[in-house]
Design brief:
Two copies of one chain form a homodimer. By secondary structure, chain A is mostly helical. Chain A has one domain (3-104): Winged helix-like DNA-binding domain superfamily/Winged helix DNA-binding domain (Arc Repressor Mutant, subunit A, Orthogonal Bundle), CATH 1.10.10.10. Helix content of chain A is 59%, strand content 5%. The A-B interface holds A 6, 9-10, 12-13, 15, 18, 21-22, 24-28, 71, 73, 76-77, 79-80, 82-84, 86-87, 89-91, 93, 95-96 and B 6, 9-10, 12-13, 15, 18, 21-22, 24-28, 71, 73, 76-77, 79-80, 82-84, 86-87, 89-91, 93, 95-96. Chain A binds a DNA duplex through helix 4. Chains A, B: InterPro entries: ArsR-like_HTH, HTH_ArsR_DNA-bd_dom, WH-like_DNA-bd_sf, WH_DNA-bd_sf.
Chain lengths: 111, 111
DNA sequence: TGATTATATAGCCAACTAGATATATAGACG
DNA sequence: CGTCTATATATCTAGTTGGCTATATAATCA
């Protein structure tokens, strides 16, 4: 259970894949387009795209013999939501109450 | 260059580490505390903590013989900011102008 | 001091990953 | 049809990773 989140974060862990996502944020791009900026082989790009697609982060279109990729921002948002969730949990947590109390008990805190 | 972002996303790629972060979102915890929920060895936990600390996502305190870990939300926020940046880029992109135009040229769009 | 508790480190191994090259598939076009 | 362009798949390999057990360090306490 939540495997798709797992796939998303695993996909985001690679810098080349993040680069691909950044490129796709500016619009659709073909495999050949995507290959240029990174100094790696076409199969390597295709493999990365497969991972990204498996994570739902991108989608595959079709135009003539090319398969332009497009960003799926909703899937990206899910990863962002996990991060926000943890941060929110932290912000709302009462577990740090003792710290606050400790602070209040030392009125002459220098620094 | 931006290596620290890399470390953050790599750290987030593992489900156990995300679990640890989720636990720490509710307050400090020791290595022993953290070990319980996951069915893995103490050294495995320590290794994960080392990765998380290397990414700046957590910090190490000290209390008697224990080293309680605490979440660093600012570092987490940086990963979130990258995601938001890509989404923003997509939202603001003019590359999809043609789509809009195509839409406008079909006035009888139902729905 | 010696025993106990908490954590870290070392070394090992199986699984996975990112890259490469070689080859296959598929559509476009003359 | 054959050729070119675009992409996908197969196979291999070196490097990384996540887990383990065994052991080391470090602080506490009797």
């Amino acid at each position: 259970m939540n495997d798709s989140l797992n796939l998303k974060f695993a996909a985001l862990a690679d810098p080349t894949r993040r680069g691909i996502l950044a490129m796709l944020a500016q619009g659709e791009a073909t495999v050949t387009d995507l290959q240029k900026p990174f100094g790696i082989s076409q199969p390597a790009i295709s493999k990365h795209l497969k991972v990204l697609e498996g994570a739902g982060l991108i989608e595959r279109g079709r135009a003539a013999q090319s398969r332009p990729r497009r960003l799926n921002t909703a899937a990206l948002a899910e990863a962002g939501a996990w991060i926000d969730g943890v941060r929110q949990l932290w912000d709302d947590s009462f577990d740090r109450l003792d710290e606050l109390l400790a602070d209040l008990q030392q009125p002459e805190s220098k620094e």
